Amino acid sequence: MTDQKASFLPPSPQSEQSRFSEAEKMGFLLLLVALSTTFGTAVPVGYTIGVVNAPAEYMRNWCNATFIERYGATLTENGLDILWASIVSVFLIGGCAGSLGGAWIADNLGRKKSLLVCGVLFVIAALFFIFCRMANSVEMLIIGRLIVGFASGLTTATLPMYLLELAPLSLRGTLGVFCSIGVTGGVVVGQVFSLQEIFGTDELWHWALSFYVVLVVVCFVMAPWWPESPKYLYLTANKKDEAKTVLLRLRGNDPNFVQYELEEMNQELVEKSDTRSVKSVISDPALLLPIVLVCALQGGQQLSGVNAVFYYSVSIFESAGLSSTNAKWANLGAGCLNLATAFFTPLLMKHINRRPISLISCAGSALFLFILTFVVNYIDYASWLAYACIACVLMYILFYQIGLGPIPYFIGSELCDVSARAAVMSLGSLASWAGNFIVGISFPILQSLWGAWVFLPFVIVCLALVVLLFFYLPESRGKQSSEVAPLVSRGFKSKPRVPFQ
Description:
The chain has helices spanning 2-6, 13-21, 28-50, 56-71, 77-109, 111-135, 138-166, 172-176, 178-193, 205-210, 213-220, 230-236, 240-250, 255-271, 278-282, 288-303, 306-319, 324-342, 345-351, 354-377, 384-404, 407-415, 418-450, 456-472, 481-484. It is globular and about 65 Å long. The chain has 501 residues and is mainly α.
């Protein structure tokens, strides 16, 4: 391998760096693909999450009126609660199914076609949302939520993998966080469009649910220019000439850098087995630790309390003396802070190692959740404690978003070789949607039983992640997956930690 590289690599590290620096920059095509896929798939995922809260009461009333008109029956309050819980949770069930199907779709259709499937499903779901009101059909609303959930799960399993496989090594962390930024931004956009001043009314809530489709259509107009993943073409589809053509387009026709990447992929081809199914990946001892790390990070991302904090933040802001309306606007402001912090994560991922930023993020999140628990519990004892609650919420958002927010989306692509990557990413995405489902179902119940102490389980999850990552997360920034995978191949007997990384 060394002799082969010597024939095309520049003679010294300094000249190698200068020659490859241009090819490693964010070219126009790569930027176009990253932005259009993020706005066309990841933003709709977040939009669908953020849009349902504000018009919930109008939607519940419509469901009740529809049952009376179509079936001549009035739903009891308990029955209406069960129906609304079904409408909300079917989205998460669809997300779990899309995550599991992501591995098969990504490996059999390709990364690009998987995203095209996502786009088609998003459009179909939007049509169900638009016409459910006209058809007076609660069933259409539920089916639409199931379809958009499946598309969302498929997106979170496929998009980070696609962008990382398009990116040069130095930009993988930067592009890896685009999915996280898109989902975070989509939540804020969904909150904005569901405000009463826009679509959050009794007459327009169905347009609020479906308005994301405008973004999907506009972004997918650029789909003919999206290249297929060169790694998929070279290692899975065995289309080596096509992979080289794609790399030349992406790297500005720099033949030396393209040859370098082809040699790296050829080495992976020699070392890899055939594309792995989810079943074979789960049963492989060498992939035990990568699966645990990916699932713990993606599931822990949801179980760290981020959604619960946003659920609870309105009441916290109200306790500080804000009116109900102003508290909702303040909650939107907290979402904007979450998004603003997310915009800095590409820079963080490019210049700061994964291990330290992950540990700092999890530890900081645990600390401010712990403080928030006690401050909320004793909030009536002093007026300044209400403002301390607001400060804790904002500090938690900052620490969450610098590491625990973006890193889980792409870390699987850096820990696994191409043959197992799709399956491991799908399992991680499944853990994320399952964690979201658990929080959505259990948090309201636990909140009514435990009050402010409901945050303590989230503190424990964050601390458990600190321990797991400290001992078992290898540093992957600036490294090929073929270098990282052996470090975690011995399960919990692995010792990937390097001091000061």
